[in-house]
């Protein structure tokens, strides 16, 4: 009888923890969806301004700089809530870490590409 009551309490606690984790995950995904929508609006405004500010000469270095800055901004938006920027890692290691976190942080393909560029250069 005592074992059954302990088991029942354990199952109730586990169920409570799982329910809490699901609720937190749902809240994070809602917040991420709202953040992504506002970030895309800000990105379109930023890209319009940055395109107007670019010189008409060779734009390879300028495009690379803009992509790196955009990657840094997206890192701060998506990853910076929980992480400090890590030390530089080889691209293969960083790509694995970003793919793993993509599921947890609901990072888009574009975000993943830009963050990877920022983290490896």
Q: Give, in order, the helices and strands.
A: HHHH
Shape: elongated
Largest sheet properties: none
Instruction: Let me know the number of strands.
Output: 0
Structural class: mainly alpha
User: Percent of residues in helical segments?
Assistant: over 70%
Strand fraction equals under 5%
Radius of gyration: 21 Å
Report how far apart the termini are. 62 Å
Indicate the mean pLDDT. Answer: 74
The helix tally amounts to: 4
State the low-pLDDT regions, or none.
Answer: 45-57
In a few lines, what is going on in this structure?
This protein has 121 residues and is an all-alpha fold. It is 81% helix and 0% strand.
Key attributes of the depicted protein:
121 residues, mainly alpha, 81% helix, elongated
Describe this structure in words.
This protein has 121 residues and is mostly helical. It has one domain (2-120). It contains four helices and no strands. It has helices at residues 2-53, 60-78, 91-105, 109-120. The radius of gyration is 21 Å and the shape is elongated. The chain starts with a helix and ends with a helix.
SSE arrangement:
Elements: H1 2-53, H2 60-78, H3 91-105, H4 109-120
Helix pairs in contact: 2-4, 3-4
């Amino acid at each position: 009888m005592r074992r059954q009551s302990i088991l029942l309490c354990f199952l109730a606690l586990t169920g409570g923890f799982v329910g809490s984790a699901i609720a937190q995950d749902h809240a994070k995904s809602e917040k991420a969806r709202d953040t992504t929508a506002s970030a895309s609006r800000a990105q379109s405004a930023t890209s319009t301004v940055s395109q107007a500010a670019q010189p008409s000469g060779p734009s390879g270095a300028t495009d690379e700089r803009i992509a790196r800055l955009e990657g840094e901004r997206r890192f701060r938006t998506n990853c910076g809530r929980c992480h400090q920027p890590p030390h530089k890692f080889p691209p293969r290691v960083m790509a694995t870490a970003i793919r793993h976190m993509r599921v947890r942080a609901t990072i888009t393909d574009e975000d993943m590409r830009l963050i990877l560029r920022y983290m490896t250069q």
